[in-house]
Amino acid sequence: TPLFDTPLAEAWVRAIAAAVEKEEGRLTELDSAIGDGDHGSNLRRGFAAALTALDGLRPAGPGAVLSKAGTTLISKVGGASGPLYGKAFRAIGAALPGPAGPADLADALAAGLDAVRTLGRAEPGDKTIVDAYTPAVAAFRACAAAGAALPEAAGAAADAAEQGARDTIPLRARKGRASYLGERSIGHQDPGATSTALLFRTLAEVAAG
Ligand code: ADP
Ligand code: MG
Ligand code: MG
């Protein structure tokens, strides 16, 4: 059964860069409705810079790849999502010194969620990244505990994240720019929860090969 190793970590970052480029318009549209319309361009710029940073890097393990991506996001993305995803990737990276099976990757992804929550102080239901990331980690963990292989665990996490993102539509935002809209944030899908679902779907795709 495949491990989350250095080539897979690099493939994930490359696939994220391609996915956020492809989905930039949709993410921007969502952020235009309840934010300032830059979520797509923030992520496109950040992950393009992460790819550049990986060029010529000789990573010691999968974690070094993700830590580098995280550091790049923090330095290149001005919006809320840069530091939040940046800290998440750094925490995931720090938890992956070597190739990881599903249970270890579940723990690493959970460390990423902890980092988001420590920095952003958002609770589930606040209409943020946390609303997609929390069910994704739970699904990943449950699959790993049941003995599932990486592609299956990542696929379940992606399904849960997509559901979590859709479930933000009726929520009122309590964190970030969308919270300034109060009740007017209701009825729109959160951009950050949507991009989190994209990250997990991308992981599932690269894990499936
Ligand atoms: P900005 O809001 O600074 O323009 P982005 O548009 O890139 O940054 O990202 C907006 C997304 O960031 C939101 O849709 C939300 O999901 C997420 N977000 C904002 N604040 C928080 C927070 N405190 N915790 C978790 N996620 C947050
Ligand atoms: Mg924005
Ligand atoms: Mg902004």
Explain what this protein looks like in three dimensions.
With 209 residues, the protein is mainly alpha-helical. The protein has one domain (6-208): DhaL domain (Serine Threonine Protein Phosphatase 5, Tetratricopeptide repeat, Alpha Horseshoe), CATH 1.25.40. 68% of the residues lie in helices and 0% in strands. The protein has 9 helices and no strands. The protein is globular. The two termini are 12 Å apart. One magnesium ion (MG) binds next to loops.
Jot down its keywords.
single chain; 209 residues; mainly alpha; Serine Threonine Protein Phosphatase 5, Tetratricopeptide repeat; 68% helix; globular; binds adenosine-5'-diphosphate; binds magnesium ion
Brief digest:
The protein is mainly α. It is built from nine helices and no strands.
Distinct bound molecules: adenosine-5'-diphosphate, magnesium ion
Low-confidence stretches: none
Indicate the CATH architecture.
Answer: Alpha Horseshoe
Largest sheet: none
Q: What is the fold-level CATH name, i.e. the topology?
A: Serine Threonine Protein Phosphatase 5, Tetratricopeptide repeat
* Basic shape: globular
Radius of gyration: 16 Å
Helix percentage range: 55-70%
DSSP strand content: under 5%
Return the string of H and E elements: HHHHHHHHH
The helix tally amounts to 9
Q: Quick check: average pLDDT?
A: 97
Number of strands: 0
> Which class do the helix and strand fractions yield?
mainly alpha
Oligomer: single chain
Distance between the termini: 12 Å
Keywords: Kinase, Transferase
GO molecular function, one term: glycerone kinase activity
Protein name: Dihydroxyacetone kinase subunit L
Domain DhaL: 7-205
